[in-house]
Amino acid sequence: MKTDTENGQKGILGIHPVVFVTGLVSLFTDLSSEMIVPILPLFLTSILHVQVSEVGIIEGIAESTASVLKLFSGWISDRLGRRKPLMIVGYGFSNLVKPLFALSTSWGQVLAVRFADRFGKGVRGAPRDALIADSVTKEERGKAFGFHRALDTLGAAVGPFTAFWILTWFHNNYRIVFWISAIPGILAIILLVFFLKEKQKQVQRKSNSRLPKIGFKGLGRRFIWFTLVSTLFALGNSSDAFLILQSQNAGMAPSLIPLAYFAFNLTYSLFAMPAGILSDRIGRRSVLVAGYLIFALIYFGFGIANNATWIWVLFIIYGLYYATTEGIQKAYIADLVPEGQRGTAMGTFNALTGIAALPASIAAGFLWQSYGPLATFGVSSLFAIAAAILMVVFRI
């Protein structure tokens, strides 16, 4: 069924064409990425013999890099009035460097490739989210971001499943997985370049414009408080690499961990769009608070899990946390700031929450080695509960 969208374009199955194509690009990119993510910590610890604390450093630096760059790319896309060029640079860079994990022989080389991959993510993220927000009305924004997250996460679900079969066929050869991940990545670049049609906007350029920096000027009080609370939450949200390592500790076979990740992403994909639609109807805050509380429950569960059965259950429910937060946060930010500043706002939000990813992952690695997994996951749960309480008390 086709419907008219805000700017008069015909929708595909009721979804704006820009949102639909962007979703497909993310689907193939995440298929490529998530073939790698579930096995990278295992590759580091079992093949390259890297310490858990070093895994935390790698993941923290990588994610912080991506998030800080979103500020600059979002600001630039606001200035240019165009999002697609930066998306091409970002998606192209990430998808072309990821297969180089196959050539890595040290944790420093893995860090360099992971840094480059996340550099690409940082360049594309804020312009893409701003483009989605600009393409639809406020009343359908949760649905649009939910649809995008659903396709993105469908790719993320298929990725670990594909990795599982490759590892099975090639006797746990991680490097083969890295090489094959290039195929969906190239498909994503083709879709983006030839099928995404962006309506160019004329943006007045100021002669005294300065280089972008992290800041809240003109973005509004509610946006400021929401960003600060989300940053507090992010300080306890360490890399998913620790979930993967805990799965192995609890007795799950390495070849089955990508399947558990598949179950997590499948749940995320199935519930992302319904959660977005729910936020359109009852408000973003209620859905976000529920997501924070789900996170607290899941992380505490990982901390005390001592068998593979519980790991399966926790990964499945973990998908609900992502479904009720990731797309909803972006829709909420778009609600709080005007169209011409959405790229900057998305970037500012991701810069601060992403910077928090570095100390979060480093601290998680330290707590793990010093006090054990329960300390790592218990602290994360406390941060999530604190963020949920602040959202309710201050009615952010």
Topology:
Layout: H1 17-36, H2 40-47, H3 52-80, H4 84-97, H5 107-135, H6 141-169, H7 174-180, H8 182-195, H9 221-234, H10 241-249, H11 257-282, H12 284-304, H13 308-323, H14 326-336, H15 342-355, H16 357-371, H17 373-393
Helix pairs in contact: 1-6, 1-8, 3-5, 3-15, 3-16, 4-5, 4-8, 5-15, 6-11, 6-14, 9-15, 9-17, 11-12, 11-13, 12-13, 12-14, 12-17, 16-17
Feature tags:
Growth Hormone, Chain: A, 75% helix, mainly alpha, 396 residues
Outline the structure in words.
The protein is mainly α. The protein has one domain: Growth Hormone, Chain: A. It is 75% helix and 0% strand. The protein is built from 17 helices and no strands. Helix 1 runs antiparallel to helix 8, helix 3 packs parallel to helix 5 and helix 12 packs antiparallel against helix 14. It is globular.
